[in-house]
User: Which sequence fits this backbone?
């Protein structure tokens, strides 16, 4: 199957390994990857800060970029996928009906990585191996906004040697929330402190998630508290055991 990769800004700039493992994983599952170099930021930071109108030009660039083919578009970040799924509404809000129609066609082709693997490719066991105890953090964008709940867990439950453990208030936000963590830093700090406390109670070896931004936030707090927990994106986990 031909697939477009949407790399996302945070993977491109901060976590290139996540993008790399996403490509390797999809190729392992039989996909041919296309990377369209004109792709740019989805506009999420501006949108979340109330500057939706100013983000329209970047949104149009993204729509135009992915109109060159009709392949599914896969991204290793639920927050970006959710932002793009809302493009038609944003264009309509500012009287851009033609762009809304074009954006709808693009948005319908966008998938979170785990959603694509489980619900499009029909795979729940990718043959990965990782021994140890882990906690999975369900990001708000994936869990609440996109409704992707079971897909990551199905994939992790089939990783040989991995024990996924529940924690108290597992579905509570980690406090990142994009610009929320900047504008409401004190509240955000308390939220991630509570999240780390709950994670630490079960003494895992790994913290796993499907949104890099959440993992950076929680991982930063774990590091500041001296916790020896390895933070991994699910794409990295699902490529473990490969030679």
Assistant:
């Amino acid at each position: 199957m031909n697939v477009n990769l949407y790399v996302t800004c945070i993977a491109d700039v901060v976590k290139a390994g996540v993008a790399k493992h996403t490509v390797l994983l999809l190729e392992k599952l039989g996909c041919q990857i296309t990377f369209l170099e004109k792709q740019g930021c989805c506009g999420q930071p501006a949108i979340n800060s109330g500057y939706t109108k100013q983000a329209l030009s970047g949104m149009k660039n993204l729509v135009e970029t992915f109109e060159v083919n009709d392949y599914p578009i896969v991204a290793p970040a639920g927050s970006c996928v959710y932002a793009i799924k809302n493009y038609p509404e944003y264009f309509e809000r500012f009287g851009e009906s033609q762009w809304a129609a074009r954006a709808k066609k693009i948005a319908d082709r966008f998938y979170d990585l785990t959603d694509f693997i489980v619900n499009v490719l029909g795979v729940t066991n990718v043959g990965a191996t990782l021994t140890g105890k882990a906690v999975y953090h369900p990001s708000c964008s994936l869990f609440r906004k996109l409704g992707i709940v079971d897909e990551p867990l199905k994939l992790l439950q089939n990783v040989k040697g991995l024990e996924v453990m529940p924690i108290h208030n597992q579905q509570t936000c980690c406090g990142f929330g994009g610009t929320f963590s900047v504008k409401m830093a004190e509240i955000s700090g308390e939220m991630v402190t509570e999240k780390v406390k709950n994670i630490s109670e079960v003494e895992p070896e790994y913290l796993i998630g499907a949104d890099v931004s959440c993992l950076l936030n929680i991982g930063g707090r774990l590091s500041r508290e001296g916790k020896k927990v390895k933070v991994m994106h699910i794409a990295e986990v699902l490529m473990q055991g490969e030679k």
Q: What stands out?
A: The longest helix spans residues 185-201.
